Amino acid sequence: MKKIVLILAFLALGLGAGAQNTNNGWPQRQSREQINVDPDGQNITIDRNMYVWRPFDDVVGYSIYGSRYRKAKANKGWGMFLSVIVAPLSGILLAYGIDEGGAGSAIIGGAALAGSLGAGIPLWVKGRRQLDWMLDDYAERYGPKPHATAVTVGPTANGVGLALNF
């Protein structure tokens, strides 16, 4: 019974950790009512201004950031593998060694558990931070700038008006 509960606990932790919300390159500053996406997914309308902006995906990541993007994805992938797959298996081996009285399997399971979590979590965090930095850099350099300042002249109720939009 202990083994089943331990397996279910590790699976629940692993699935919950992989279900994080990711930003795929679309602007997040405005409310959803101000953002309209065309059916093709390439054109977005923000505050009645049309921008053409490709979402951040693997093609954009590899073409702009190259090997840094590949390394960040590899770091995140290996970190998730070590933390979600290897760590629960090592925990099962540790629990088996403790229950059955096998000191050798308990030591190996404990060492593997410590090693997989000790290496997996930092790799996962490092890869995620690198990917987040690339996404922020891409959005800053290539993303739409809906809050740009502009001076406009137009008709008003009393004649012609000059407006500073920011």
Main beta-sheet strand count, sense and barrel state: 3 strands, antiparallel
Strand order of the largest sheet: 1-2-3
Which stretches are low in confidence, meaning pLDDT under 50 for 5 or more residues running? 19-33
For this structure, the quaternary state is single chain
Indicate the radius of gyration in whole angstroms: 25 Å
Short description:
The chain is an alpha+beta fold.
Features:
4 helices, 15% strand, 59% helix, three-stranded antiparallel sheet
Blueprint (SSEs and pairs):
Elements: H1 2-17, E1 35-37, E2 43-46, E3 49-52, H2 58-65, H3 67-100, H4 103-142, E4 150-156, E5 159-165
Antiparallel strand pairs: 1-2, 2-3, 4-5
Helix pairs in contact: 1-3, 3-4
Structural features, described:
- The chain has helices at residues 2-17, 58-65, 67-100, 103-142; strands at 35-37, 43-46, 49-52, 150-156, 159-165.
- It is an alpha+beta fold and 166 residues long.
- It has a domain at 2-24 and 69-132.
- The chain has a 3-stranded antiparallel β-sheet, with no helix packed on it. It has a two-stranded antiparallel ribbon with strand order 4-5.
- Helix 3 (67-100) runs antiparallel to helix 4 (103-142).
- The protein is elongated, with a radius of gyration of 25 Å.
- The model is unreliable at 19-33 (pLDDT under 50).
